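Batch job 17 of 40 flagged for manual review because the log was empty.
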Amino acid sequence: TFPFRRYQMQTVWRGDRPGKGRYQEFTQCDADIIGSDSILCELDLVQLFHEVLSRLGVPSYAVMLNDRRLLNGLARAWGIEDQFTDLTVAFDKWDKIGSDGVRKELSERGMGESKITEVMKLFSLLDQEDSEERLRGVQKLLLPDDEEAQFAHQEIKKLMDLALGSGVPKTCLLFDPTLARGLNYYTGAI
């Protein structure tokens, strides 16, 4: 019966050589929902993360949100669709290399300085702690007639509103426009 929901806790192994602080073998908890593209499935996952982390007593956690379609829309707005992978790989490293490192990474991957300057405007949104302000800032960077990106913007806003309405505290929910994980399998919300 779809949507199909599952969870699993088990030992997993990395197939690569893990970097410092990462292990080849570790325990991982997965939760998946397949067979639906409803925003309510995303809400289920946000609520699950909140409940589990709260019950475990994890201090100061945040469920981070973004949407692959917003990233695609930003690339279209900046005219760098053909460098989408370079863009998202650099975004994914931001927490380790910072804004200057992202700028250098994009330059080394052949992106022009004017495009890099446009991209770096996104990082200024991270100075805003309020997710709604960040979301409004991203919308200003999107092309007004980009239906896919505008729809994704509305869906993320709706997801955040639903999560807040369901009891997830505002302090535990963070829209991060640079979140770019799982690019081989995410098509919508991240």
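Reviewer: the log was empty due to a logging misconfiguration, but the result itself is present. The mean pLDDT is 90. Unflagging and moving on to job 18.
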